[in-house]
Amino acid sequence: MGRCPTEPHNRSKMNIPFHIGNTKGDDALEKRFLNKALELNMISLKGHRSVGGIQVSLYNAVTVEDVQKLAAFMKNFLELHQL
């Protein structure tokens, strides 16, 4: 299961940090996620320096297709690891 470590009133619409595995994040599982994402040419997903985990940035250069690809990868990763 994933969890966003940022309080709702402080959340950005452009940068989405989250942990996977548990509320504090599972380092081994997050590393596996990041390595697999890199194999799929999804770069710069390592988490923010203050909250760690994983962070997705949705700035202008990110296309709808990129987001759909990421969402499909995340769903598949969730299913494979039964989170």
Describe the structure.
By secondary structure, the protein is α+β, with helices and mostly antiparallel strands. It has two helices and four strands; from the N terminus they run ββαββα. The protein has helices spanning 27-39, 64-80; strands spanning 2-3, 15-20, 46-48, 52-57. A four-stranded antiparallel beta sheet has the order 1-2-4-3. β3 (46-48) and β4 form a beta hairpin. The longest helix has 17 residues, at 64-80.
What proportion strand? 15-25%
Low-confidence stretches: none
Computed structural class: alpha+beta
Return the average pLDDT rounded to an integer.
87
Number of strands: 4
State the end-to-end CA separation. Answer: 5 Å
Task: Please state the CA-atom Rg, rounded to the nearest Å.
Answer: 12 Å
Cofactor: pyridoxal 5'-phosphate
Keywords: Amino-acid biosynthesis, Aminotransferase, Pyridoxal phosphate, Transferase
GO molecular function, one term: O-phospho-L-serine:2-oxoglutarate aminotransferase activity
Pathway: Amino-acid biosynthesis
SSE diagram, text form:
Layout lengths: L1 E2 L11 E6 L6 H13 L6 E3 L3 E6 L6 H17 L3
Antiparallel strand pairs: 1-2, 2-4, 3-4
Q: Which key terms come to mind for this protein?
A:
four-stranded antiparallel β-sheet, 36% helix, globular, Pser_aminoTfrase, 83 residues, 2 helices, Phosphoserine aminotransferase, aminotransferase, alpha+beta, single chain, pyridoxal phosphate binding
